[in-house]
Amino acid sequence: MRYVALLRGINVNPATTLAMGDLRALLERLGYGDVRTHLRSGNALFTAEGDAEPIGPSCRLSWRSTRPARH
Length: 71
Fold this sequence. Notes:
The protein is α+β, with helices and mostly antiparallel strands. The protein contains two helices and three strands.
């Protein structure tokens, strides 16, 4: 199945900077295929097998694990 991820607030300020290559790599590490990103928008298209329900939580956890802790 083909999915789209629309990450809000990406690349709006220095605290939310995310290179699209890093976003592609993150989604590929999660096992998603045919990952494509659009400009510096935080939007990505990808394919995934199985149920769609765990996609959002797994992306959020992976994204948070790559960011420095905020105080």
